[in-house]
């Protein structure tokens, strides 16, 4: 039985609270009732189901992906860290081998599509080796706006917000916030160009041809 977000905030678990607040913390000091094992076991169960057991997969995924569940599907196999800090909107599809490293909250809007082997990584480690070897780490939330598309092999780093209607090209490593209505590519990801009315008109013509055929 998972606690809801308000209950997490009142959990009397200082190390867990530090983690969700984006402060330095030590994983092994988090109390057992807040540890990651239930989510990992649930995802392991999902990943072991036959591919055609779609209804069973979706039912179990509802326990991982909080929020709207109208037409939501994540193609197994996938991985999580905690498996309880992920909120998704309606019409969400994610292809195979995604990593939702939800050490902090991952919030995904409506009508989002994610390609294969995408990494959403809220967890990070100090650059200084001395602090890092003391097992101190941090986690910062990731937010993905409505109507976005992340291509295959995209990696999104801690604390990043990706704006609505934007496209992240395959293989990009997103280290900074992405505005609305742009295409970003590369490592580190940079704005290639804005998405314009000409793009909309072109793709609407292509869609019209499809529906007329």
TrEMBL record:
Record-linked InterPro entries: Hexapep (IPR001451), Hexapep_transf_CS (IPR018357), LacA-like (IPR039369), Trimer_LpxA-like_sf (IPR011004)
Task: Report a single Gene Ontology molecular function.
Answer: galactoside O-acetyltransferase activity
- Report the superkingdom from the record: Bacteria
Protein's UniProt keywords contain Repeat: yes
What EC number(s) are associated with this protein in UniProt?
2.3.1.-
List the keywords (alphabetical).
Answer: Acyltransferase, Repeat, Transferase
Task: Report the enzyme's class at the first EC level.
Answer: transferase
Entry's family note: Belongs to the transferase hexapeptide repeat family.
**Name of protein:** Acetyltransferase
Q: Which organism does this record belong to?
A: Lacticaseibacillus pantheris DSM 15945 = JCM 12539 = NBRC 106106
């Amino acid at each position: 039985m998972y606690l809801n977000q308000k209950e997490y905030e009142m959990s009397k678990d200082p190390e867990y609270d530090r983690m969700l607040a984006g402060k330095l913390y030590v994983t092994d000091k988090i109390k057992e009732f807040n540890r990651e094992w239930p989510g990992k076991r649930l995802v392991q169960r999902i990943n072991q189901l036959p591919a055609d057991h779609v209804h069973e997969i979706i039912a179990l995924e509802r326990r991982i992906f909080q929020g709207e569940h109208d037409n939501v599907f994540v193609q197994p196999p996938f991985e999580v860290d905690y498996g309880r800090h992920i909120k998704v909107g309606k019409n969400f599809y994610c292809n195979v081998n995604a990593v939702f490293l939800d050490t902090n909250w991952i919030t995904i809007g409506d009508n989002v599509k994610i390609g294969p082997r995408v990494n959403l990584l809220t967890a990070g480690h100090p650059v200084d080796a001395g602090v890092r070897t003391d097992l101190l780490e941090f986690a910062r939330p990731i937010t993905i706006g409505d109507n976005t598309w992340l291509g295959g092999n995209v990696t999104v780093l801690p604390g990043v917000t990706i704006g609505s209607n934007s496209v992240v090209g395959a293989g990009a490593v997103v280290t900074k916030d992405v505005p609305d209505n742009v295409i970003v590519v590369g490592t580190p990801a940079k704005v290639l160009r804005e998405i314009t009315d000409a793009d909309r008109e072109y793709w609407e013509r292509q869609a019209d041809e499809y529906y007329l055929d």
